[in-house]
Amino acid sequence: MSHTTSSRPLPQEERNTATADLPPDDLPEPATDATDAAEATPDAAEATPDAGEAAPDAGEATAHAGEAAPEQHTAASEAPAPAPVPAPAPGWRDRHPVAARALAWTTTVLAGVLVLVTLLLPNDPARLTPAEFVRIPVEGIAGAALLLVLPRTVRRVAAVLAGLGLAVLAVLDVLDIGFVEVLGRGFNVVFDWVLLGDGASFLQDSIGPAGALGVEIAAVVLVLALLVLTALAVVRLSNLMARHRAAAAGTTLVLGTAWVLSAALGLQIAGAPLASRSTSDLVQARMDGVSATLKDEREFARQAATDPYHSTPGSQLLTGLRGKDVIFTFIESYGRSAVQDPLMAPGVDAVLAKGTERLRAAGYSARSGWLTSATYGGSSWLGHSTFLSGLWIDNQQRYRTVTAGDHLSLTKAFQRTGAWRTVGIMPGVTKGWPEAKYYGLDHVYDSRELGYKGPKFSWSTMPDQYSLSAFQRLEHGRPHDKPLMSEIILTSSHNPWAPLPKTLPWNKVGDGSVYRSIEKAGKKPVDVWQQTDRVRTEYGKSIQYSLNSLISYVEKYGNKNTVLVFLGDHQPVAKVSGDHASRDVPVALVAHDPDVLKRISGWHWTPGLNPGHQGPVWRMDTFRDRFLKAYGPHPDSTTPAVAAR
């Protein structure tokens, strides 16, 4: 009896040929235990046609096997043959075996490369060299050995978790690289997450809201893709090892032996150890960093609670400055590089030299030195608080601790005397600033209170000359029953240093509307940042503008009672200051009254506004006590320090 069908199963030889060229990792994983074997074996009831369907008589179908009666053979031979099961349509792999093989191997290789890169990725931009990625990672060897001995289900879970862990570590390494480039230090996993918001704000000011949103979305997508792809890559490699246990075990043993020998002999590739344990070292370093950060928080809290000036009466503070209008001014990113770098220094040094002469002609004298800032490349508030509190504040938690307490700040010392009105000019503050209470400022003029009607200049909400003009209009130029102590933050030298404002006649500044055409004609940040020399040049110009604005203000509006202390808060980013730059910033004290400078003669500061290469260098946190000692009685060294309330 013949049967007609639309398709037929492939003969065994053809099926063997169709799958022969596929890589092992695309074939079904062999059973690794009894349960897997049972799952991999087709059910006998499904594989064998029902005897009742194969024979017309049930009794004949259930005859004993040993009876082999002729009637049974006859019945079986006359029974209709079962209809053949249609073969499934050939898949893409069956139609294109060579391409499938190539794709599978390519995917496996890429998975291996991704895992290797995440294992060997350094967290220091100086180490981003090809030699770093041709080493033997001990973590990969140990991970492979562990996956080989785990049962199937546990192995897959472990592979997923390992992939996710590697991806997270890679993200942290990238954050480290970015922070080193910008802030000169690694990423603190405890405190630095808040700074990512500042980075987003900087992007928005540099490339606009739409561009910043695009970058943020791309960053999120890349992080998610890295998490997913790394997990899939480890799973794929673990499946491959499970299918070839003997070969995988042998390879792992060889690599482990090579690692041990390389470590023992100290073998290197381009200066990098061939035997790598960078991932485990970085994990340990991060764990130690978290522990050290939490310990530092407790120790700093105790340090901030002890202050030798805490109980000094206001009547004994700052007696040498009574009757003076004292102005503390921070110039954003004004660092040693600005006055000593071969590209930027000529223009800045000329401004300082000419400024010294201009102030001398107006009856002022100046002395200058160096302070080592607690921060670098950004986080200006850490530099401000270090200078004013007399405490080393190099992370966000320290800043929160000191500003939430009552450790005496330099500006609050003026307020405690009752002899000064204390104000702040803060164009960079765009919302409520509760820290004003800690700093002892009677009133803070933030960007919303300075009356500015002009455009922003990238990050800077207004030009420095306008900020000083507003200070004159709102406070310094108005009659008061007390002299002023002012804290002024100048922001025009904040990166990205494009576009830049221009110096105007003071009577032309007005409400700032005049700056619209200047901002529109200025350079775009994205154009400036394409070349390092261009960035450095524009940075130097921004410092020149800020210095000129401040010097010009003292010339025009200063008087015989004016005392000005101005300094940088930190060095600019490494793209400008260079790799391994110091954290030194210039500081200068300007006064009309010779007695003011006579009190700091023991400081041995350099005459003029430029401290020069050989000027004294102090840590920034030492300035408060030196200043309070120079201009008032020093607390009795025999009296125990009083804990702050």
From TrEMBL:
InterPro entries linked: Alkaline_phosphatase_core_sf
Region (Disordered): 1-92
Annotated Low complexity bias: 29-80
Keyword Membrane set for record: yes
Transmembrane regions: 102-121, 133-150, 157-180, 212-235, 247-270
Domain of life: Bacteria
Key word Cell wall biogenesis/degradation present: no
Key words of the record: Membrane, Transmembrane, Transmembrane helix
Protein name in UniProt: Sulfatase
Species lineage: Bacteria, Bacillati, Actinomycetota, Actinomycetes, Kitasatosporales
